Amino acid sequence: MRGVFLLGLFTVSLCVVSSIGCDAEYSLPTAATVQPLANANSVESEVDNNTLGQSQLVAGIPGEDKLTLQQVKKWLKTPGIHDPLEIRVPWHLRDAVVVIEPEQYLTRARVELGRQLFFDRRLSEALGFSCADCHNPGRAFAGYTADPHLDRDPMPIFNRLFSTSQFWDGRAARLSDQPKGPIENLHEMATTPAACAERIGQVKGYAVQFEAAYGRLDFEAVTFALAAFVRTLVTQPAPYDASVALRDESLPPNLRKHYTKILNQKPFSAAAARGEKLFFGKAECSNCHSGPNFTDEQFHNVGIRYSNQLDTDLGRYKVSNEDSDRGAFKTPTLRNVAITGPYMHNGRLDTLEKVIAWFSFGGGNDPLQSTAIHALDLNKNEQLDLVAFLESLTGLPPTVCQARLLE
Q1: Number of H helices, E strands in the chain
Q2: Residue 59 in contact with residue 253, Cβ under 8 Å?
């Protein structure tokens, strides 16, 4: 297995990265520093240009309209854009574990390249499909598909920097492994890795960027660039985060001012406060939706598979071949859950109220349902309070430039 950075809040790691030989004008660095936000004791740090979740990293190459080859070449000479980024995570995600493979360290050039690819339909056969068509920026990079050939809804792709496996069944061990699935799927991008890389390579604006960023243009480099962009899609503080921050008596005055401003714009309601107690208590939600990203990154059968008798999706079992994984799916993050419905792997529940009612009732009738799912007998007011708490977890990813793309 390739090396992976697993970083806590106050650690700084230096990883030696093999240099990729090339004759390009832009030489690749030989080392990468990955640094979470240390101490987080200033508003300036909270909005530092390297702090993930800020829009500066995904604002695109300066200018308007379509990108030209000349503009790309000029931008590639910008000082610093090929230097490894000292990544910082914002205060509300300070305890999250950062996962980055050493050879996939981030630079501004790599992030920008991935941004362009994310919106480019040339990734697909017949130019009919882009990543953004399923992971809609207008819906916090989540999506819903009514295609009968696709039995699973797209998972939101924000905060993927903190995830160790991708997809509802976890079949992609690394974030850069994820694009291969939709690219090869006949009902999505319907192409092959080789054909995809060849189409991208025919665009001169991409060719020079890949040479500068990775020293090569092949399918692996395409997936690395996409992963670089996705890793910047980190959620900004939600009202709940601000409420938690302001309970910390040691919070520096400037951060206290910062989070007070957030709550003034969107308060943490009394109903949400009651829902918080239920979430971490009687309702037992935090047993699975735990940690800064509200997911244990594990796989559970919650009984939803048999809500429709035609649904024969075996979930994680297809990957692990373990009987205990039949009908088990990955615990999704609850951040932005109020705006990323419908819910469950198959979109079977269309409102948060129905989700809470499902778990309050005790799940479904799947004989393999997890024993952790049991009747909670929450009354109507308690269910509404839980919904209010979930709504307080809305903190959007950064605003991404969608217009500055190659012709």
Answers
A1: 14, 6
A2: no
Find where tokens 């025919």 sit. Answer: 202
Angstrom distance (rounded) from CA 27 to CA 109: 12
Question: Per-residue pLDDT tens for 325-361?
Answer: 999 999 999 999 999 999 998 888 999 999 999 999 9
Both structure tokens of 268 = 């943490």
Task: Identify the residue with better confidence: 213 or 371.
Answer: 213
**Please, what CATH class does the domain formed by 269-391 belong to?**
mainly alpha
Same topology between domain 5-230 and domain 269-391: yes
Above pLDDT 90, what percent of the chain? Answer: 59
Which tokens belong to 364?
Answer: 């479904």
Task: Of 150, 142, 148, 137, give the one whose Cα is nearest residue 189.
Answer: 150
Q: Which residue has the higher pLDDT, 213 or 186?
A: 213
At 17, list the tokens.
Answer: 């990265």
**How high is the pLDDT of residue 299?**
95
DSSP annotation of 280: T
The Cα–Cα gap between 175 and 166 comes to: 6
End-to-end CA distance of the chain: 38
Q: Where are the domains of the chain?
A: 5-230, 269-391
Average pLDDT over residues 269-282: 98
DSSP codes of every residue in 156-222? P-TTGGG-SSBSTT--BSSGGGTTHHHHH-TTTT---HHHHHHHHHTSHHHHHHHHHHTSS-SHHHH
Confidence of residue 2 (pLDDT cuts 50, 70, 90): very low
CATH number for the domain formed by residue range(s) 5-230 = 1.10.760.10
CA 92 to CA 74: how far, in whole Å? 37
Cα(303)–Cα(309) distance, rounded to whole angstroms? 12
Which of 17-21, 322-326, 367-371 has the weakest average pLDDT?
A: 17-21
Nearby residues of 70 by Cβ (< 8 Å), 6 or more positions away:
none
Q: How many CB atoms lie within 10 A of CB 371?
A: 6
CA distances from 194 to 201, 221, 328 (A): 10, 12, 33
The pLDDT-based confidence of 97 (bands split at 50, 70, 90) is confident
Confidence of residue 108 (pLDDT cuts 50, 70, 90): very high
Q: C-alpha dihedral over 134, 136, 139, 142, to 10 degrees?
A: 40
What Å distances lie between residue 399 and 58, 168, 394, CA to CA? 7, 26, 15
Neighbouring-strand partners of residue 13: 34
